[in-house]
Each structure stands twice: as structure tokens, then as C-alpha cells.
Specification:
338 residues, alpha/beta, Isopropylmalate Dehydrogenase, 2 domains, 41% helix
Length: 338
């Protein structure tokens, strides 16, 4: 089987970790037609825009992209390349797994999938200032917009994800006790959808502030979580923190027109070109891409290879306390995958 995939190496450490991820993917035995395109600062330097038309057209054609971290320039093009891509391709679901990999940390049994609505809520960007007297910026107003369709789509996606991946429980996270309408609608729709999955996936709901506390007290109680945009943005970093931070955290942005997979950490320009970056998050993102393509066995093989390289072989980049270079780590994972 051959897959057509848009490849965006990214900025900073992006090209280094993406190169090792491509190497690892090709060791699985699958064939890929990589259409390499630019975004972020690399695109600005080459084309004058952070998101060239050629990149957008490539994603539109292939419907799948593997993206390295980007440095989004200030005051040019989209306010964020990631936001621009979400809107362009209606990437409504942000999926962030967090699983304990390196033993010896505070939390040993974390295995959480956080599903975040990606397009609505406060992040829709409807805001303005209100003038009072002589002060034109006396009051700032921001509007959270939540639709029944958007709520149903993300909650149903989360339940279907749970079933597909053999997950047992789904928690609907909300603030309906205070935000009676925008969060109340999410909870109302969530409970209605949950009834359709009774007997297949256990469901409960939890207020977001209690959720944040429970995550650091008893994270093992959570399996799949689904929530709105801003809550998901905050909680996804919290669950990553439970397993050591963003260095091992992959993410998927799934939509009706395309799916984009990425490491969620930044471009780390301070270590770019030094061969010390950890490609694990990008490799885990590639495993999520294989899941999306229906290659579930190979996806699990990739995850197992990364974990076994870190834990079993004790081959680690310096952020995990080791001395391996980016290339040495990539070679070790590729050998295990093959």
C-alpha cells in the first residue's frame, strides 16, 4: 500500500525530528509519496508568507499531513499558522494522548486521551473593546460561540474513538454550573450522545475545576476526556505534564476535509541544528497518522518501538537523561520497527 502524505518539516528542530520520523515510518514496510511543503518561518523566508497556497493545496489533495513544529511570525499572515489550518480544513477535533513512558516519575499509570473541540468557544475570536467616557479600551468583551452541531460532532467523535481503540470510559468536562448556556449546551448534548453508547462505553461528566484537581490527585480514573476549546487547551497541557511534559506529547487535528498530525512542542530554535532534539513526540504523532490511515498494527508497532528504545534499550536523548543524538535515537527506533 502506498500513501500520499503532505510533509511539512517545520522550523527550528522540525526538519531534524521529521527526518528521523520519516526514516522510522519507511522502516515499517509501508510506502509513502511524500509531498514536502513549507509553513511557518521557513515559508516566510522562501515565499513571503507563513502558509503558502502550495501547502494548502497539497493538504487539500492528500487529505493527510505530517507537520513539524512551526515558528509563527508576528504580524504576518495568519495570527497563527495552526489556527489558519484548523479553519481552512475544519479540523474540529484535537486529540492529545498522554501515557506514562519513563518509569520513576510521580505518576506511573497515566493513560489518557483528551479530545478537544478545536473551532468554537472563546477561541473563535469574536471580541472587541467598549469605550466608556474618554477611554476607548475601558471594557474588553469576548464572545464564546458554541453550536449544537459542534458539540454533537466532537462528543460523538470521542465516543467513536473510544470504541475504535478499546477504551472503556469517557468523561465529559464542562462548566455548566456557571456557564449555563455555552457550557450547558455542551453538557446537554454530551449526555444525549452518551445515552446512545450505553453498554459500550461508560460515561460520566465532571466540572472543569474539579477535573483539574482530580488529574493531579488520581489521574488513573480518567480514560478518554472530551471538552470544549479553551478547557481542552489548558487540560491537554496538564495531562502532558503528568507524564513529563510536552517532549513526549503528540497531537492530531482531525477534520472533515483533512487530518494533520504533529508534535505539540515548540520549534526550540536554541537547539536547532545541534542534533540533540528528541523525535519521540513526532514519532508518536506518526503512529496516530497510521491509526488514521487504518494501519493499526503498524501504529502499535511504532509506539512499542519508541517505548522499548527508551525504556528497554535505555537509548535516550538528553532531555530524558541520556546522551543519544537525534540520529542515533532515530536509528534505534527504525531498527526495532523493522
Amino acid at each position: 500500500m502506498t500513501y500520499d502524505v503532505t510533509l511539512i518539516p517545520g522550523d527550528g528542530i522540525g526538519p531534524e525530528i521529521t527526518a528521523q520520523t520519516v526514516r522510522m515510518l519507511e522502516a515499517t514496510g509501508l510506502r509513502f509519496n511524500w509531498d514536502e511543503e513549507l509553513a511557518g518561518m521557513a515559508a516566510v523566508e522562501a515565499t513571503g508568507t507563513p502558509l503558502p497556497d502550495a501547502t494548502v493545496e497539497s493538504i487539500r489533495k492528500n487529505r493527510v499531513a505530517l507537520k513539524g513544529p512551526l515558528t509563527t511570525p508576528v504580524g504576518t499572515g495568519f495570527r497563527s499558522v495552526n489556527v489558519g489550518l484548523r479553519k481552512e480544513f475544519e479540523l474540529f477535533a484535537n486529540v492529545r494522548p498522554a501515557k506514562t513512558i519513563v518509569p520513576g516519575g510521580r505518576f506511573e499509570k497515566v493513560d489518557i486521551i483528551l479530545v478537544r473541540e478545536n473551532l468554537e468557544g472563546l477561541y473563535i475570536g469574536v471580541e472587541h473593546f467598549v469605550q466608556i467616557g474618554d477611554d476607548p479600551r475601558a471594557v474588553a468583551e469576548s464572545m464564546a460561540i458554541v453550536t449544537r452541531r459542534g458539540c454533537e460532532r466532537i462528543v460523538r467523535y470521542a465516543f467513536e474513538y473510544a470504541i475504535k481503540h478499546g477504551r472503556r470510559k469517557l468523561t465529559i468536562v464542562h462548566k455548566a454550573n456557571i456557564l449555563k448556556m455555552v457550557s450547558g449546551l455542551f453538557l446537554e448534548v454530551g449526555r444525549a450522545v452518551a445515552r446512545e453508547y450505553e453498554g459500550r462505553v461508560e460515561a460520566n461528566d465532571m466540572i472543569v475545576d474539579n477535573t483539574a484537581m482530580q488529574l493531579v490527585l488520581h489521574p488513573e480514573q480518567f480514560d478518554v476526556m472530551v471538552t470544549t476549546n479553551m478547557f481542552g487547551d489548558i487540560l491537554s497541557d496538564e495531562v502532558s505534564g503528568l507524564v513529563g511534559g510536552l517532549g513526549l506529547a503528540p497531537g492530531a487535528n482531525i477534520g472533515t476535509k483533512a487530518a494533520i498530525f504533529e508534535a505539540v512542542h515548540g520549534s526550540a530554535p536554541d537547539i536547532a541544528g545541534r542534533g540533540v532534539a528528541n523525535p519521540s513526540a513526532q514519532m508518536f504523532a506518526a503512529a496516530m497518522m497510521l491509526d488514521h490511515l487504518g494501519e493499526l498494527d503498524r501504529a502499535e508497532r511504532v509506539r512499542r518501538a519508541v517505548i522499548d528504545t527508551i525504556v528497554g534499550d535505555n537509548i535516550r536523548t538528553r532531555d530524558l537523561g541520556g546522551t543519544a543524538t537525534t540520529e542515533e535515537f532515530g536509528s534505534a527506533v527504525a531498527r526495532r520497527v523493522a
